């Protein structure tokens, strides 16, 4: 709010936005976005970014761009990262072997060219999106990157001024066709995007496995190298497998299972052999019987309680 | 049991050991529970009956002191008496003629005595009315030998009663209210009822005049003797036997012998008294009583039966039940006896045969007490005897089922709930008084009408029904000065249980035309409906074809027609009660078509040669493939494809990375798609993307569309995936979050790849075994949908609940129609105390006792760890899945579960009161905070649009295919929208929607989400308030957002006005 001290870095400013009414919900509304400087300054970019909380569910880059344009004029807004995009950390697609070994090995410097190819491959391997315009969680946050540090000041000032003039920016004004429409067109498009086409999907999968196979090969090579290479302290890492190749994880699992089975079998054979075993068994049965009886008693008690409680059908 | 063949008889007459008498823990728990019940129902004799003994003594002295009266001719005596006292003598119909020569007199009674449950102390608290029976034994010298004939005895009895009444009236003044009543609705036996004038005292004393022992010789009153001759004009008919009249008369002199019998047995058998009380409860819950309108089998008859079973009944006269048995065992034995004996087919005789076995032969049920020469079931009609046997059978089935809680169905649940018992109820007005139903016997007009109705309906409905039962109206008492209303205006109600396989058959076949006599009879019975037809096999027969009518199913049509035809009643006088579902059991062929098409797919898939792995199993998991989808499966291109799971042989080719395996699956699907398209001309395949939150979840499916046929949605099951997730859940090195996530993923995978195929198989095989299950499931789903619960409750959960209602129908029988199945499910739900008990559906009979206790332990554990039901609300285990959470993991929440129970209860109440069935499917929108009305046109346009995608861009995308490609429907638009809304507003709004055809989405605000001060990490949209730092949920802007998201799909958003 306007009277909040703006000097403190952590204080949020309130940015009211007027929402034009729709025929299905003809109520003029004001939405409130809360914004402040980005508190986490890790990179250079962070200094010229703003942290927004409670962005509207249907926000998109064009929406925010036009919002900031209406606040401080064109050319200040650079890009926006929504909470969901930032969070969407992909699971690693490294083969398990590679993951295990990664901690033991220093990163090898890659050729720049090679790196670029890798990135290109990985982009090609990404699953296509099924939405023309993804929605964002209600109350979610976003980080807006502005042109420079000065723009941040200008925006904050403009927001403060807003409370005096009461001329709130209008949501979606000037967006026009830049953001894909919601409603039925949005769902129609979604249904089409769900089916990207078999050929296109084949390409995606192929790209993925190009990346994956390369990583796997690298990991294997690495494992082989590590078998004979002492580390800084002079230790050699023990890796699974025979002399020829390291074992696969699932093979090891299989072997363990077999061993357990064998143990189980041996146990079975030695049961019911001695008299004390039979005696123990009988005792256990008796105990189980008594326990069952007790349980029934408890159940009965519970039933009684319940009947007091419900007393149905009388 | 059918005792007809010699061999069978030999087998069945072995030692008669009541089930459940072994000393298993379950049996002892049952005995404990019955003891508890006995304490519960025990009548407190001290307080409510305070002073009753004094009143009874006063009665006795008054009656014994009455002045004798010299014999006088009946008409004179009547006139004189009625003039002197303001009492009308309650003569039975027909009243004695004016010129009747016999004389009436009054002398002091031979004995005045109190009998019945008050003396034996077998009353129960929940009895509708507590009556104390006082018998007045009339002296033998009042009667002549011939008085057994032509109601003479009853005229004298009525006069005697009137005299007593006059005497008591004089003595008691206004302390007691006196009225007449028919004893057990028997019009021959008026009795005097005295009730305390103060309304607070709730007991009644019935003064019952009766005959001294051995008043008339037994030989006169055999069931086949004819004692009423005056009615008939026809000399032949005059010989018709009058078993009811005879038994009434016989029973008049047997009060004391039976009292003696009960006392002696009670003395020798310690469990007898309690068994009688249990029997009374058992009968009461089933609506049986001594009254004719209650079936004519009450606690007295039950007690006598038990007494007889304890003293004789075996083939050599040995007792069937041992006197050393406990009360609950005696009850079980008696129920077993009732279940196994068909009293109508073959008379059951206790004691030595009377001289001539034919002497007992009669139409109704017979349980003959040869010692006292009385058919104990003389008050029972054929239908009530039948019903009693069925009740006993159903109870027995429940008792044999050990896994069930045996106790509740036997004693607690109100079994006598017509809507739960019967598939169809009919109410038929009694015809006008002028219409008589001629009968020699003295049952009364209502009975005669009911009997005729019973026989006609039974004949007309034939194989379509398995049980028909009739309820007569209860006769009321009347003031001593008034005339008993001759024809009680009222309705006879009929209950019918279908035979599901043949109930809706359209054709009724009659006799062949050559059989002239039968053909004529058939025509007479059916009237103009019957017609002659030639059939394919060359025969010419009488037959009737019933029309398909959406407002009345065929049994309804038949009842209406035949009742109107035979009784000349008009349309209004027959009212039928039973839901007319647009879901009919005949819809099966749609499902058959879907299954057939699925088999084609399976065949086509197995034919593929070039797949890298061998296909292990192809399992359908969609509800369409188990006869359970609400919407009939059609080959329409605008519906979502049917879900199928493919699993391949175990292989080492899967990678050890979850995300990579998901891609491998896509590669598999693409390969399958390619091969299918290559091998079959009519197949198109489309790879579609799942809405996966994470790329280790299943990413894609393959829609296989048969040209002009069904579409299927294939997903691949990978055993490697399951193994890896399992390893992750056990991996202690992983952090907690990752572990729970793995556990969740594993549960999801197990559900769709392991449980659902088994579930589909189970439900589908039960649907073929139980003919009305499929329709009942769909009916229930419709109900869930119309109350907007469908989006919170898994279809599988609904199916399991209905299945449970079918498999454990106790204390009723397996439902025989969709509507009954639905009501039983509602009954099951309404009694489900979900916070305290899990639902265990053992549909394969494979859950052992150990597993069962393991399930209970798991249930207790989950309740302990989550006492506020935040994670697990309903706990449902079945034979395939003992985790109990497979189908309830993603709903319903506590709010929804309670709502479901509440709605189910109101359904039970509505139907019990025979309310309007249209209300069943009318949701109440009042309590929702937000109602979003959707625009059906816009929604339809989404569905149509994708089907008609002829745009060139698609041609490009799909390459060489030149003609327009029809994309399948990924998901219904409303569901997509709903899911989006749910994701974005998970914390603040709970949405309700009822499935495909529902045009409303409703929502409730989360009351816990209200105010906060922190601005970071907001769970939802908040707005600042006037006063300082607090923020409140910005409801208006949230709704405005929803309006923007929905765009043209949303017609209107309505908010509940603040009250």
Structural write-up:
The complex is a heterodimer of chains A (314) and B (1059). Helix content of chain A is 50%, strand content 11%. The two termini of chain A are 63 Å apart. The relative contact order of chain A is 0.11. Chain A has 314 residues and is α+β, with helices and mostly antiparallel strands. Chain A has a five-stranded antiparallel beta sheet. Chain A is extended and about 95 Å long. Chain B has 30 helices and 32 strands. Chain B has six domains: 1-41 and 257-407, Poly(a)-polymerase, middle domain (Orthogonal Bundle); 43-253, Beta Polymerase, domain 2; 418-506 and 546-578, 2-Layer Sandwich (Alpha-Beta Plaits), CATH 3.30.70; 584-769, Beta Polymerase, domain 2, CATH 3.30.460; 771-924, Poly(a)-polymerase, middle domain (Orthogonal Bundle), CATH 1.10.1410; 930-1055, Alpha-Beta Plaits (2-Layer Sandwich), CATH 3.30.70. Chain B is elongated, with a radius of gyration of 36 Å. In chain B, 44% of the residues are buried. Mean pLDDT of chain B is 84; it is low at 1-23 and 947-963. In chain B, the strands form nine sheets. In chain B, strands 3-4-7-6-5-13 form a six-stranded mixed beta sheet, sandwiched between helices. Chain B has 1059 residues and is α+β, with helices and mostly antiparallel strands. Chains A and B meet through β2, α7, α8, α9 and α10 of A and α2, α19, β21, α20 and α27 of B.
């Amino acid at each position: 709010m306007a009277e909040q001290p703006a000097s403190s870095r952590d204080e949020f400013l309130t940015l009211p936005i007027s929402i034009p009414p729709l025929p299905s919900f003809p109520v003029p509304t004001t939405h409130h976005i809360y914004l402040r400087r980005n508190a986490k300054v890790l990179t250079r970019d962070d200094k010229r970014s703003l942290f927004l909380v409670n962005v509207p569910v249907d926000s998109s880059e064009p929406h925010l761009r036009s919002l900031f344009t209406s606040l401080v004029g064109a050319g200040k807004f650079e890009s926006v990262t929504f909470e969901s995009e930032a969070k969407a950390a992909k699971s690693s697609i490294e083969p398990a072997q590679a993951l295990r070994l990664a901690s033991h090995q220093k990163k090898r410097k890659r050729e720049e060219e090679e790196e670029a190819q890798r990135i290109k491959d990985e982009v090609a391997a990404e699953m296509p999106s099924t939405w023309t315009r993804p929605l964002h969680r209600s109350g979610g946050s976003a980080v807006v990157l502005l042109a420079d540090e000065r723009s941040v000041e200008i925006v904050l000032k403009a927001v403060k001024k807003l409370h005096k003039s009461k001329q709130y920016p209008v949501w979606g004004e000037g967006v026009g066709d830049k953001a894909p429409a919601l409603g039925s067109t949005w769902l129609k498009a979604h249904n089409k995007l769900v089916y990207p086409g078999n050929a296109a999907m084949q390409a995606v999968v192929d790209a993925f496995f190009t990346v994956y196979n390369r990583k796997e090969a690298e990991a294997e090579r690495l494992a082989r190298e590590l078998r004979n290479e002492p580390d800084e302290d002079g230790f050699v890492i023990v890796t699974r497998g025979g002399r020829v190749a390291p074992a696969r994880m699932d093979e090891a699992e299989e072997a363990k299972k077999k061993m357990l089975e064998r143990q189980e079998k041996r146990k079975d054979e030695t049961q019911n052999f001695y008299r004390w075993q039979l005696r123990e068994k009988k005792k256990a049965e008796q105990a189980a019987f008594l326990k069952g009886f007790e349980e029934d008693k408890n159940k009965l008690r519970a039933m009684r309680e319940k009947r007091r409680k419900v007393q149905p059908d009388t | 049991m059918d005792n007809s063949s010699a061999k069978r008889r030999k087998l069945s007459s072995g030692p008669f050991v009541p089930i459940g008498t072994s000393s298993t823990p379950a049996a002892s728990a049952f005995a404990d529970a019955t003891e508890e019940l006995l304490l519960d129902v025990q009548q407190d004799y001290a307080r409510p009956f305070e002073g009753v003994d004094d009143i009874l003594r006063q009665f006795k002295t008054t009656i014994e002191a009455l002045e004798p009266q010299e014999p006088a001719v009946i008409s004179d005596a009547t006139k004189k008496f009625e003039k002197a006292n303001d009492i009308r003598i309650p003569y039975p119909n027909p009243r004695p003629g004016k010129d009747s020569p016999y004389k009436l007199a009054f002398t002091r009674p031979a004995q005045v005595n109190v009998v019945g449950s008050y003396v034996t102390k077998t009353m129960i608290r929940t009895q509708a009315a507590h009556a104390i029976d006082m018998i007045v034994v009339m002296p033998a010298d009042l009667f002549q030998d011939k008085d057994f004939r032509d109601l003479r005895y009853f005229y004298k009895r009525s006069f005697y009663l009137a005299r007593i009444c006059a005497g008591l009236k004089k003595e008691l003044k206004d302390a007691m209210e006196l009225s007449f009543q028919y004893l057990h609705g028997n019009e021959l036996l008026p009795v005097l009822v005295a009730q305390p004038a103060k309304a607070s005292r709730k007991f009644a004393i019935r003064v019952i005049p009766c005959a001294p022992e051995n008043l008339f010789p037994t030989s006169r009153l055999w069931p086949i003797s004819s004692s009423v001759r005056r009615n008939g004009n026809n000399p032949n008919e005059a010989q018709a036997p009058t078993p009811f009249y005879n038994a009434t008369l016989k029973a008049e002199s047997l009060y004391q012998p039976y009292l003696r019998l009960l006392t002696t047995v009670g003395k020798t058998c310690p469990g007898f008294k309690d068994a009688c009380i249990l029997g009374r409860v058992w009968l009461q819950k089933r609506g049986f009583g001594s009254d004719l309108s209650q079936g004519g089998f009450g606690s007295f008859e039950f007690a006598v039966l038990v007494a007889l079973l304890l003293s004789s009944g075996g083939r050599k006269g040995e007792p069937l039940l041992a006197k050393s048995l406990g009360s609950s065992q005696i009850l079980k034995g008696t129920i077993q006896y009732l279940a196994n004996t068909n009293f109508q087919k073959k008379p059951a005789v206790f004691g030595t045969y009377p001289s001539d076995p034919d002497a007992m032969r009669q139409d109704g049920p017979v349980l003959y007490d040869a010692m006292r020469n009385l058919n104990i079931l003389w008050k029972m009609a054929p239908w009530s005897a039948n019903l009693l046997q069925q009740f006993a059978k159903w109870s027995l089935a429940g008792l044999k089922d050990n896994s069930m809680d045996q106790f509740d169905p036997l004693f607690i649940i109100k079994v006598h709930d017509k809507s739960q018992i019967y598939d169809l109820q009919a109410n038929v007005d009694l015809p006008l008084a002028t219409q008589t139903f001629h009968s020699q016997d003295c049952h009364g007009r209502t009975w005669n009408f009911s009997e005729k109705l019973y026989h006609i309906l039974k004949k007309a409905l034939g194989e379509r029904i398995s049980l028909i039962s009739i309820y007569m109206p209860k006769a009321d008492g009347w003031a001593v000065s008034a005339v008993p209303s001759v024809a009680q205006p009222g309705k006879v109600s009929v209950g019918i249980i279908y035979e599901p396989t043949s109930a809706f058959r359209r054709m009724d076949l009659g006799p062949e035309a050559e059989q002239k006599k039968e053909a004529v009879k058939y025509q007479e019975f059916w009237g103009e409906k019957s017609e002659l037809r030639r059939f394919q096999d060359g025969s010419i027969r009488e037959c009737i074809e019933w029309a398909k009518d959406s407002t009345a199913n065929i049994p309804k049509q038949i009842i209406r027609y035949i009742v109107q035809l035979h009784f000349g009643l008009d349309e209004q006088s027959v009212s039928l009660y039973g839901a007319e579902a647009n879901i009919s059991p005949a819809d099966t062929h749609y499902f058959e078509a879907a299954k057939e098409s699925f088999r084609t797919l399976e065949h086509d898939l197995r034919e593929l040669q070039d797949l890298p792995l061998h296909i292990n199993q192809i399992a359908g998991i969609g509800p369409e493939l188990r006869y359970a989808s609400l919407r009939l499966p059609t080959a329409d291109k605008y519906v979502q494809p049917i879900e199928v799971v493919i699993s391949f042989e175990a292989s080492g080719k899967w990678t050890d990375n979850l995300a990579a395996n998901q891609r491998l699956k896509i590669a598999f699907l693409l390969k399958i798609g390619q091969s299918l398209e290559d091998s079959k001309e009519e197949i198109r395949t489309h790879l579609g993307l799942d809405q996966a939150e994470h790329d280790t979840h299943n990413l894609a499916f393959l829609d296989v569309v048969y040209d002009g046929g069904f579409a299927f949605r294939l997903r691949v099951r990978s055993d490697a995936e399951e193994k890896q997730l399992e390893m992750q859940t056990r991996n202690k090195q992983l952090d907690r979050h990752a572990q729970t996530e793995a556990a969740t993923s594993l549960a999801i995978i197990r559900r769709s790849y392991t449980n659902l195929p088994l579930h589909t198989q189970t439900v589908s095989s039960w649907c073929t075994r139980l003919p009305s299950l499929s329709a009942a499931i769909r009916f229930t789903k419709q109900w869930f949908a119309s109350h907007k619960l469908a989006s919170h409750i898994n279809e599988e959960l609904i199916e399991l609940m209905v299945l449970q209602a079918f498999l454990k129908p106790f204390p009723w029988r397996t439902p025989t129609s969709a509507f009954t199945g639905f009501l039983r499910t509602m009954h099951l739900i309404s009694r489900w105390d979900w916070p305290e008990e899990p639902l265990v559906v053992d549909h394969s009979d494979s859950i052992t006792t150990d597993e069962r206790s393991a399930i209970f332990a798991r249930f207790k554990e989950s309740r302990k760890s989550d006492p506020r039901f935040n994670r697990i609300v309903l706990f449902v285990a079945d034979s395939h899945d003992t985790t109990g959470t497979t189908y309830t993991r993603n709903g319903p929440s506590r709010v929804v579960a309670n709502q479901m129970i509440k709605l189910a209860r109101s359904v039970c109440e509505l139907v019990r009161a025979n309310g309007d069935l249209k209300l069943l499917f009318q949701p109440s929108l009042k309590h929702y905070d937000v109602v979003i009305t959707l625009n059906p046109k816009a929604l339809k346009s989404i569905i149509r649009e994708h089907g008609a995608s002829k745009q060139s861009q698609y041609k490009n995308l799909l390459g060489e295919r030149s003609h327009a490609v029809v994309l399948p429907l990924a998901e219904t638009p409303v569901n997509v929208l709903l899911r989006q809304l749910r994701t974005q507003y998970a914390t603040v709004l709970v949405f309700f929607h009822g499935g495909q055809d529902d045009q409303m989405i409703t929502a409730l605000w989360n009351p816990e989400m209200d105010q906060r001060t922190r601005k970071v990490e907001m769970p939802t949209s908040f707005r600042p308030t006037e006063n300082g730092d607090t923020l409140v949920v910005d409801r208006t802007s949230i709704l405005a957002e929803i309006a923007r998201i929905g765009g043209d799909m949303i017609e209107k958003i309505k908010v509940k006005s603040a009250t």
